[in-house]
Specification:
Keywords: Signal. This is DUF4198 domain-containing protein. This protein has 2 domains: 121 residues, Immunoglobulin-like (Sandwich), CATH 2.60.40; 107 residues, Sandwich (Immunoglobulin-like), CATH 2.60.40. Helices cover 12% and strands 46% of the residues. The strands form 4 sheets. It has a 5-stranded mixed β-sheet with strand order 9-16-15-11-12, with no helix packed on it. Strands 3-2-5-6 form a 4-stranded antiparallel β-sheet, with no helix packed on it. A 4-stranded antiparallel β-sheet has the order 8-10-14-13, with no helix packed on it. Strand 5 and strand 6 form a beta hairpin. It has 2 helices and 16 strands. With 265 residues, the protein is mainly beta.
Length: 265
Amino acid sequence: MPRNQWKPFQSITVQWISLLLVCLVALPVANASEPKATDIVVRAKSKDAKFIGSSMGGAMVRIRDAESGEILAEGLTEGSTGNTDLIMQQPHRRHQSIAEGAAAFRTSLMLSEPVFVTVEVLAPYIKKQARVAAQTQVWLVPGKHLDGEGLVVEIPGLVVDVLSPQTHRYTQMADAPFPIRANVVMMCGCPISEGGLWDGSQMEVAALVKKDGRDFATIPLALEDVNTFGGELQPDGPGLYQLLVYAYDPRTGNTGVDQVSFIVR
């Protein structure tokens, strides 16, 4: 066949080869950019205690794109505090889950490429005076789930609520001495009791009292009942009293604070 008659066939062959190469190059790119569901589980665990769940209003979890700050998912942990024996008493082996049945926030993100995220946890969410913000960061890879035990974020601290005297209460010197009562629980709501798993007799709880803006007294509070510490305040005269109750566990460094002010006439 004369040479010039091969040109149409050569042209067609080149076109097909070019098209094939384009398809081969484009195919991996298309597959790589296809979004894949990526499941994520986040849990909030009270330091020296159990998981923070529905009984404490949950922990607010926010997952943000670390670069842009965009919120990719958010919500509250839901469920129980978990298995006390498994979490607090049994020895733990490597890769052993302790989160059986425990509260968690679950979500699924459609990701087309790996993303570096910041995971923020605010807990216990409904207890503003005790709420702690903790965060960590992690890479999420499309289709590579972060499930099972999930990402566990530790929340340090104690929840303290002053029960009496009440905020902005007006009272009379004739009613003195005034009882001081405070409720103290772990961040997961776990009970503090005499000689219990969370032993209140080993904790330091006290009221720091100011009168008219000046230091007045430090009053130790003793464990009176489950979660309840008490003492008495003997004022020396009328004035504006400010009372700050703190709880401190020297074994773990956990602390918590609440405060009120009241008026003595």
